[in-house]
Structures are given as C-alpha cells and as structure tokens.
Amino acid sequence: MVYVPALSRNFHRTGLHACPCGYFGSPADTCTCTPHQIQRYRSKLSGPLLDRIDIHIEVPKVDYQTLMDTGPNESSETIRERVNRVHALQMQRYKRESFSTNATMHPKAIRRYCQLTKPSRELLAQSFDTLGLSARAHDRILKVARTIADLEGAERIDTPHIAEAIQYRSLDRKYWDSLG
C-alpha cells in the first residue's frame, strides 16, 4: 500500500491499492478484478506522480495473532530519540544551506551531500538501467539513502543504504508494470 493524499474519490485517504478490489498481489485473498479493470484503475496514477513520492512500501494484511503478539517492541521514546538525533545531524550539516533536511535537498546539493562508495554507485547505476528509473526517482533514492546512512551514523552512502532505498521505490514497478 502506498500513502497518497486524496487524489480522487477512487483512492483511499490512507493508501492506494493495486486494483479496485484491493486484493491484487495478496497472498491471502483473491483479486476479482479483470486485467482491464486493473489497468484502468492504475492509469489514474501516472508514473510522474509516483516519481514525486519518496517512499513506496507494501504493507501486507496483518493476521489477528500477529496483531495481538505482545513480544518486545521498540518504544516510541527510543524511536523519537533516533529521529531527533538524525534531525539534529541534518540541521547541523545544512546550517549554511537554504534547506535543512535530506528530503528538501535540491539536485546540486544532492551531488554534494550524497557521496557514494564505488560499489553503491555501481548498484545504483545498474538499478537505474534495469528498473528504468527516471532522474527524479534517482534523486529521491539518493535522498532516502542519505537518511538511511544518517540513521546508521555513516558518513558515506554504501551499498546496503542504496539497496534499501531502491526497495522503497519498487512498488510502482512491481504492480504498475506487471500487466504490461
């Protein structure tokens, strides 16, 4: 599921399904839509619009037992501390810039602040060609990878950071290209 602000009445405020019934690609439920219905539904969300969304992730249906699991979870306070630490790091890094976060970097700043290791550069180049990514998607991947690296305290963006950021961009390719 992808969060998309209310684009039209056909899209849910809390997310976007891959088809009108919401079950296309679900391992637990069966999609009842025809290929034509799915294609018509998907055509309402263009590639250029998807390019403007930083992260696309699939959120599978959660079964009741998993929902009720009371195992150890990371506390909200721990998560808040990590987010605040990374936010402070970005504020410091960009204190002389016209922006203050990775998400708001412009293309020239991306080239300056998103330094890649050689293997991560090669992975991004290969993914760019294989997935047919746009220039906008490329820059969004770099911004997300910079944030992932910041969360790990890494100075440079390495292969695992790029790989994770690419995974967050693959939902549109998985569903929107599957009917061809």
TrEMBL record:
Residue ranges of every copy of the Mg chelatase-related protein C-terminal domain listed in the record: 74-169
Cross-referenced PANTHER family: COMPETENCE PROTEIN COMM (PTHR32039:SF7), MAGNESIUM-CHELATASE SUBUNIT CHLI (PTHR32039)
Domain Magnesium chelatase ChlI-like catalytic residues, every copy: 17-66
Protein name in the entry: ATP-binding protein
Gene3D superfamilies: P-loop containing nucleotide triphosphate hydrolases (3.40.50.300)
A Pfam family hit: Mg_chelatase_C
A GO molecular function held by the record: ATP binding
InterPro entries: CHLI-like, Mg_chelat-rel_C, Mg_chelatse_chII-like_cat_dom, P-loop_NTPase
